[in-house]
Amino acid sequence: MSENIKLMQGNEAIAEGAMIAGCDFFAGYPITPSSEVSEILAARLTKKGHIVIQMEDEIAALGAVLGAALGGAKALTATSGPGMSLKSEHIGYASMCEIPCVIVNVMRGGPSTGNPTLPSQADIMQAKWGTHGDHAIIAITPSSVNESFYETIRALNLAVKYRTPVLILTDEIIGHMREKVIIPEKDTLEIIDVKLPDVPPSEYKPYNYKSGKVTPLAPMGEGYRYHVTGLSHGETGFPSAKMEVIQDAQNWLIDKIYNNIKDIEKYEETMTEDADILIVAYGSVSRSAKAALSMARAAGIKAGLFRPITIWPFPEERIKELSKKIKKILVPEMNMGQIILEVQRAACNNIVKGLNIVSGEPITPDKIYLKIKEMM
Amino acid sequence: MPKTTIKFDYDKYLRKDTLPHIWCPGCGDGIILKSLLRAIDKLQYKKDDVVITSGIGCASRLPGYVDFNTIHTTHGRALTFAIGIKMYKPRLKVITVSGDGDALAIGGNHFIHAARRNIDMTLIVFNNYTYGMTGGQSSPTQPYGSHATTTPYGSVEPPFDTCELAKAAGATWVARSTSYHAVQLEKLIADALTHKGFSVLEVITNCHISYGRRNKMKSPVEMIKYQKEKAVPNRSAVNMTPEELTGRFKTGLIYEKKDSLEFVEETYKQLELIKQ
Predict the structure, then answer these.
(1) From the list B47, B64, B267, which residue is nearest A51 (CB)?
(2) Domain ends where: A164, A188, A212?
């Protein structure tokens, strides 16, 4: 067993997770604090015979990923805030054209160049709304190195299954900290591979949304000749300006995610059963929240922790349920208050307060504990 | 060279249910589309093996009409998708079609880097000197002094020379033709596709609607005449003075470098060496 336990950095765990999940194409552009993902894959994924390419800019990196994905690749790219801003264009394209891909954002402060070497959680709303137009997105916020590994595998699976861009939002703390990862045998993992459609080319509709199921994206060059466009398109993939087609296609982009929310959402609850106050925290902050929870319990305060692992779609139904019996909610975040907006919406009758630190200083357990005491 | 027959069966390559196309009557883009289809046919490429990517603009609507693997991407980024799929599946024949604004303004960075890598793909730049789809704004190839909606008093910017830029950036096959020279165009497209490395073919095409009517060429006929009169075969141009070449453009093969290092081949050679 011991040989399967490795000490590694969060960014390395993402690279390892991607490799075990069958990622076979990576394109990136250097940016702190995510560059290790590129560097490790450049050294390692290539040894498996797969392409790792450094493109001329962030936009090109995601463009190359999408080109490869249309060829059938399980493709990944990694970046940070300023790169996410640039990639927004192609995240929209991937949503619209339903091309599977995974984008890792090791969050740092902003706006603009911000604080390249300091942690942040300020891209949570950007992850959901960064690209123009309505669309649904899947975003995942791991809180440990081990979870970075497993959630990267899940991200690649979800991308293929729902033909959608999936974002992994870690932060500089998770990306650069070192912890143990238990590397499993590959055959113990659920891996969703790219498949050929189960219909012959003559019957293939690349956007067969009227079936209510996600149609596999046929790898190009295998006999399924079809058209991909960022223009509004119907089931055949060709542009359409028909209003009912535009409406149906738009509904589908949202529905295919939200109708499968039970499969996509993932969260962890700690001591929520008898809690009087709930902390909602994700990513590295949830680690401090867990410690604060122990401090509060030791002081006789019944605190509980709700930790979204899938941050988008936001698990609002569960928050709604919890808010019926827990009246006070604290949302500590390394931003000026982003996911708190979702919590307030789901728990509209509760007292919901934020603890927001954006100086680049991690939110420590004692700060969360003091805020709990203040609220009680 | 075999004579081009007008009886060529375009239907076998067209997605007829996507027609009519969006191009204005008299536009040169259809001539380029047909030349491309004849060239592909001449090379006997299998439809399943051809990928065409494009960006945004009039020229970039071409892929929708032809029965290959087609990707109408974002503005200026068609080459990035092309690089991705070519690197992932090198057996595919990857062609990018792009306009002058798409390839040289918003996509300029991707253009020079694709050329620098000398990746085995073909880029066809439909140069109509303007942003036709958005109504005739200034383009990076717009001739000095000419008029656009955003340069109503004449452009005071020097234009890019697409071919010189491609050559300087590292492309190993560079040529220019026009929508008037349809026979030459077909041959050059076939040569571009068979060249190993990054081939760039600029095609001067006519947009009388957005460019011509603001520049004393109201009809497609006038624009086609302009192409015929201003074109100088590259082999003749060597004997001409810069003054004689002013306001004209060279056509035919401009530059070719054989046996250069090619990106896909170099990459896979290295992957083979380091494979575990």
Answers:
(1) B267
(2) A188
